[in-house]
Amino acid sequence: MELNADFSERVLVHSDEVEWQASPMPGVDRRMLDRIGGEVARATTIVRYAPDSQFSAHTHSGGEEFIVLDGVFQDEHGDFPAGTYVRNPPTTSHTPGSEQGCTIFVKLWQFDMDDRNQFRKDMAAELGDAQDGVAVAELHSDPRETVRYAHLDAGAHWHVSDAGGIELLMIDGTMIQGGEELRKGSWLRLPEGDPLKVEAGPDGAKVWMKTGHLPFATPPAA
Question: Where would I find the ChrR-like cupin domain in this sequence (predicted)?
Fold first, then answer.
């Protein structure tokens, strides 16, 4: 399966307009944003766990990173409330689920295969002081990519011109980019050489962002 697999194109998806699709596990549904591969795939997805649902135990051969958007995600390593950013690199394993239900934004098979840096962070707690109405937290950085979380005040302008492509998920609020409104749940991917220029809406914006990673976008290993 290929979905939004041309990384030279700008892609904007309002995830609330995408139909939920059942996963192989009862009570776990997903909205696919981009994908290369079948059930094992290089994938960017929003996943919804119904209350008391659980996914089977598995090892992340290609790594996994996710943000908890609402509810509480759980596994044998602990409870992960909304606003948590988690990196589970290649070779890590867990049995994910949620007693109360939750929604996560998850990226699979997008790690350096030698990465072993596993961690969790409260994104808001990592924010630095605001400059010109924009407060930014650097959640992770390596030679392949940089991951950030940002709060924009109402009307604030933000310009990012990192090499290697830009991808973002709107956590809350609104922004204008390229004459289009991004709202809660909107997912934007800009190709290499296309800078991000946005203006926050009247309620500001909360944004997760990854840059530099698109040149490394490949299908999962066989």
Answer: 9-111
